[in-house]
Amino acid sequence: MTASDRKPRPGTDWTATEVKIVVADYLDMLRKEQSGEPYSKTEHRIALRARLPARSSGAIEFKHANISAALADIGMPFIEGYKPRGNYQHALIAELKRELRQE
Hints:
The protein has about 100 residues and is mainly alpha-helical. The chain has helices spanning about 15-35, 40-50, 55-75, 90-100.
């Protein structure tokens, strides 16, 4: 286990593992939205809470909005229900680029 994978304290930067999990989930929702497939943001958030126990529902919502901001900054579409917010963790850009290269 590396330092970036230890269980985080609330209010701390998201670990690399947490970023990977939340970005993958966000991109799944985005693909569904773009293809017209129904999905529930609430169900996704509940599932993420089970995988990210140190993060509140509000923190997950805020991170989703930050992912929207990161996508907007690299000229990509984002989920309409998660309006971009500023001052996001730079690790989001790296993970988004890594994930998007795999598609």
